[in-house]
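Hi Y.,

Following your request, here is the sequence exactly as I used it, all 244 residues.
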Amino acid sequence: MIKLHNVARWGVALMICIGIGVITPRPAQAQLGLGGIVFDPKSFAETVLIYKRAYDQLTAAQQQLQEQVTALQKLRNPNWRDITNALSQTDVLMRQQTTLGYGLAGLDAQFQQTFPGTAVLGNTAAQTQTQATRTLATLRSVLDAVTQTTQTFPVGLTRLQGMKAQLGTIQGHEGALELANTVNTYAAEELTLLRQQLATQTNAEAVYFAQQVNRDAQTRATSQAIWSWFAQPATVGQTISYQP
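Below is the corresponding structure, written out as tokens. Let me know if you'd prefer a different format.
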């Protein structure tokens, strides 16, 4: 790679050679018709002007090359982070068998089994306990998932502060583009975390309200079944017993 100061040196050396060629004494026959040596001021002035123009061109080229080098400078220490662990930990929490999380295998079947809706309650205590247990387990997993996400806050704040500090030190367009890409990537990661948190929040709300709706529906269905059974006429000697 040719360094900029080497280009300037070569230009100066070239101009010196040109100047020497002009200053070198020449035969004067062309001017005076004598054998003596004379100095040609006009030729010397033209040579100096040529040298000055060449020097200005080399100076401009050197400045242009330096500006190009500055423009191509890379961004030092990009402020990247890794949210993979936070995302994966949340997914693990929402796959636990005791929950009704979005990552649970066979979620639809598990949901219908836990919340049968209008089905008449059989073993009332056992069904109610199962529904409450799975609802609470789901809510607990959502809270644990929120904890995992909030642990990314300090790192994210540090990265943002680093980006703000780099903003005032960028000189070239290449570094500016890299910083813009870093900011866009950070924003995309924030949206990904927010998307996951919205999913867990929706999951928690769905399970909670399902437990409420299922409780009311099963209570009404059981009450209707009991009243329907009592409305049936009893026969003489029949033992009254109700078994849902």
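The radius of gyration is 43 Å.

Thanks again,
Q.
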